[in-house]
Inverse folding.
């Protein structure tokens, strides 16, 4: 084997603390995540102990307030942590992103009393969260959701079904969007629902082409009762809360996509340097060298795009358009890069003996989750030309 394997990504980080943080993440990824990724994905095993370890290391609440157990890291740093985790195993990187998404509503819109009561356990107490917006008949058109929450005194009764829930059935808490008023986006409210509440059940997890270790399941709410103290924000504010969370979450997906693409490129470079044909490493052939160059360029461009959007967010500036662009570009790039990696490895790339076939299957879902890439194009176009007039 060649000793010219790819080196870790040379990251531009704002502080010495953030550089130490990324070094810690790389160490955990190399020691605890990457060695078991292929076997556990193949068997469909969810690595709950890894999330417990990440919580103990302070990595599940990085972008949140330190007074509640968060890491107070800028998004510029948090997203690069996600990229490193996703490069080791997407189930873990995406899982951390989803957990952060589930914490977003309470952290951004909850009362001080709610935050004090719940955030410490959510951010650093070993809990794992999930985010419940989509439904069997309400995916891209999330404002048409039909799960209902009916108020009775000081509590709400939630009834309905949520679909495509990452961590469905294994999460300790769920941020749930339910209809409390008239049809449309203004009739939706957000709730923080415990994972063990009576009346909440999970269906058998979906059988997916990739990310088999990450459970994705429907959740059934059969008269689930939650106190009004677990309502997040005002009645009817839920859709606003959901959209704000999704803007941030799309950057998480973009970072995960770059991580998957980087892992695929690293595998392709290592293989191309080691594999010999016609008496030379295949990395000597111009056609293949151009493929590697294009793959690396897509990754660098995607990383720059998501970091630019993150810096806008960190500065308190609007970033919705840039988040949609980052999610669109990075996930399309991941699909292209992983496909090329399979091609570079040839027949070996099509076998489970090498990770690139798994990375290609995983890249596909990133073009779909948290708003399909067609929806991202709609979001971008609306920022450019205003809403559709039809």
């Amino acid at each position: 084997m060649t000793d010219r394997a790819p080196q870790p990504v040379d990251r531009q980080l704002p502080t010495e603390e953030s550089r130490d943080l990324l070094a810690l993440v790389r160490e955990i990824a190399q020691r605890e995540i990457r060695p078991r990724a292929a076997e556990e994905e193949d068997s469909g095993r969810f690595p709950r102990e890894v999330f417990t370890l990440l919580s103990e290391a302070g990595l599940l609440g990085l972008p949140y307030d330190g007074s509640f157990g968060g890491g107070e890291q800028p998004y510029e740093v948090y997203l690069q942590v996600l990229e490193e985790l996703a490069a080791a195993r997407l189930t873990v990187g995406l899982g951390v992103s989803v957990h952060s998404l589930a914490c977003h509503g309470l952290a951004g819109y909850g009362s001080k009393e709610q935050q004090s009561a719940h955030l410490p356990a959510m951010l650093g107490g070993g809990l794992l969260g999930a985010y419940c917006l989509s439904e069997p008949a309400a995916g891209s058109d999330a404002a048409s959701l039909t799960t209902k929450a009916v108020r009775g005194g000081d509590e709400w009764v939630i009834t309905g079904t949520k679909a495509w829930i990452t961590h469905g059935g294994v999460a300790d808490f769920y941020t749930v969007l339910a209809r409390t008023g008239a049809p449309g986006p203004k009739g939706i409210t957000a709730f923080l629902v415990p994972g063990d509440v009576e009346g909440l059940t999970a269906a058998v997890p979906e059988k997916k082409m990739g990310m088999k270790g990450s459970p994705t399941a429907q959740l059934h709410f059969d008269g689930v009762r939650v106190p009004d103290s677990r309502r997040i924000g005002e009645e009817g504010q839920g859709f606003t809360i959901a959209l704000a969370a999704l803007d941030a979450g799309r950057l998480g997906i973009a970072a995960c996509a770059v991580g998957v693409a980087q892992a695929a490129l690293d595998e392709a470079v290592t293989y191309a340097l080691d594999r010999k044909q016609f008496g030379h490493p295949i990395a000597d052939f111009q056609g293949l060298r151009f493929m590697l160059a294009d793959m690396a360029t897509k990754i660098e461009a995607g990383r720059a795009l998501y970091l630019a959007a993150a810096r806008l967010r960190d500065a308190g500036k609007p970033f919705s358009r840039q988040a949609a662009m980052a999610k669109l570009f990075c996930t399309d790039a991941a699909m292209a890069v992983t496909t090329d990696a399979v091609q570079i490895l040839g027949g070996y790339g099509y076998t489970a003996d090498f990770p690139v076939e798994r990375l290609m299957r995983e890249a596909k879902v990133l073009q779909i989750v948290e708003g399909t890439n067609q929806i991202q194009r709609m979001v971008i176009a609306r920022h450019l030309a205003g809403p559709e007039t039809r």
